[in-house]
Description:
Blueprint: H1 18-34, E1 44-49, H2 50-64, E2 81-85, H3 92-100, E3 104-107, H4 110-118, E4 126-128, H5 135-144, E5 147-150, H6 153-163, E6 190-195, E7 217-218, H7 224-233, E8 238-242, H8 252-273, E9 280-282, H9 300-310, E10 320-325, H10 327-330, E11 334-346, E12 349-354, H11 362-366, E13 375-378, E14 389-395, E15 404-412, E16 419-423, E17 443-450, E18 453-460, H12 465-471
Parallel strand pairs: 1-17, 2-3, 2-10, 3-4, 4-5, 5-6, 6-7, 6-8, 8-9, 9-10, 12-14
Antiparallel strand pairs: 1-11, 11-12, 11-16, 13-16, 14-15, 17-18
The chain binds pyridoxal-5'-phosphate.
Amino acid sequence: MCAGPGHGTSPARGTAPRSRHADRRAAALRDVARRGLLTDETPLLGIVDEDRVRARAAELCSAFSRPEGAGSAAPGMPADLHTVAVKAAPLVPLLELLGDAGLGCEAASRGEIALALRAGVPPERIVFDAPAKTRSDIRFALARGISLNVDGWQELDRIDEEIGHGAAAGTASAVTGADAAGTSGTASRIGVRVNPQRGAGAISAMSTATETSKFGVGLRDPGAREALVEVFASRPWLTQLHVHSGSQGMAMEQMALGIRDAVELAEEIDSRAGRHQVTRVDIGGGLTTNFSGEDDAPAYAEYRAVLEEVAPALFSGRREIVTEFGRSLLAKAGTLLTRVEYTKSTGGRRIAVTHAGVQVATRTVFAPEAWPLRLTVLAPDGTERIAPAVPQDVAGPACFAGDLLARGRLLPRIETGDLLAVHDTGAYSFSTHFGYNALPRIRVLAHREEAGQIRWRTYRDQQSCEELLAEAGAGRARPLTRE
Ligand SMILES: *Cc1c(COP(=O)(O)O)cnc(C)c1O
């Protein structure tokens, strides 16, 4: 499925040398300063390094390519599908870029599906994973050939009704015209999400494979495994298993064990059904991102090596693999750049007051221990400040005391008018705005290198005051009469 530079030809190495990414970013930030793009009206920008996004996507594709696979899969080899989790970066131009590189989209809502379709991602490359799909969500996906993973038994009942599983039960197909041979009559690949119940990672809110996680069918619950095997045996159109054990903070080995559980279940289903039924295993995303240094670590090749070790059958060539990475694909390609509006000292603590806070770094503000972010202090011209480090708080613009990006962080002394770069914010950050204090969604710019020049484009403009007002219900006419 993957296309673009590097795939199938470059070795599965980590990323470009660490200094290249950092150098390119430093040049881009200086360029932003030189162009005067940070103003009173837009004192905060999100910045995407497209070259780094492309490099990481190519690294993913080549890390998972099968031995024979040069470019697309060799004849007879399964064609894997790498999707990006839309929730990590719901920006249409970014999804377009990834779509052009051959990736698909993992969507968790109708809105995310709409973004993926608008980005030109073909329906067969979209996987729909929402846990609370309505009947119309299900119909929408089935009618368009979008793959979906069923989250539980009640949802499966609804799918049965939609595709007329009941050829046997005599129900007519509501939407897609299932035939008596037991095919679904839809182009959608339909799977079931299982929860291997292998325990939490380092961050409980990010762990989806605990005993009681809200996602999927618990594989170790009494009778569940047997029920799953039965359900597949009587529904030849169920052809996929899905497992996603969590995000940030999950060890690779732990995720791999959950994936092994899914592959073993696929084998059991096939042997019970007496046919090659489970043709695709969706291994989710969740690879941890390095927030403490520059490297794209771990490399996708390292993850593949762990998977080869723990779940070798995944690479048997009998089943296609789907991946759904978000943070590990995009976080390190994004930077927030804010102007320091004021500096002050309170109770002996130096505080830099910036425009980057809870609206763009929500997780860091609410759970600072779990989500520390690297910061770099720049002079007003965008060059890095080199000075002895002193402990400082870095505050955001929101009106609550906890709106801090860092507490007591050792940084070169920050001056009013300086710039502050907040690193590794390309996923779940500036693209995933938190509405508070009527702060606008921020402008997002992207850069790429062309013939040694930095080329810029706008991914999204800052939300205008008019748009903010409309969002706040300002367009509503007052009632003509008062009750
Ligand atoms: C959030 C999510 C992902 C992406 O997780 P990352 O940690 O960003 O890689 C993939 N699949 C599912 C089902 C998810 O909920």
